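Reply to dn_fold:

You asked what the input looked like. This is it:
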Amino acid sequence: MNLIFEHGIWSFANAEIWVGIGLILFFGILIAAGVHNKAGAALDAKGVKIQSDLDEAARLRAEAEALLAQIRKEKAEAEAQAADMLAQAEADARRLEAETKARLEETLARRQTMAENRIAQAEAQASAEVKAAAAELAAKSAEHLLAARLAAGGKDSLLDAAIAQIGDRLN
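and this is what came back:
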């Protein structure tokens, strides 16, 4: 047995034995010092920190999604409001166009009526002037005829009746 410890695998001259003994002593010291508890606590703390970071990220994501939903809602409301404003503006434009067209037609009709009245008045005045000129001419002609007859001394009953009718027709 001495041979095994002196020259064999279990020989203290073998470097692997000393590495193994050193490793066992190192692990023993680490266990005695409670390093495994401290490492577990550090890993647990790191896990808790990572979990809190994940929870914070989830909370921030939820806030961002809520904010995005609110922005989309506000955008939809703004687009609807813009569409309503556009429709209202178009309706106002059509209404103003109709009102302006009606006012223009009314003004044109009024001006046409005024022009027709002026034309009728001018026609009536011209007709009255023509009738007055014709009456004056007829009266002068009748006066000349009468003067000529009186100067001639004769009497024409047909001419007297025509002269009487002219006076009645002119008045």
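Residues 7 and 42 are 45 Å apart (CA to CA).
Hope that clears it up.
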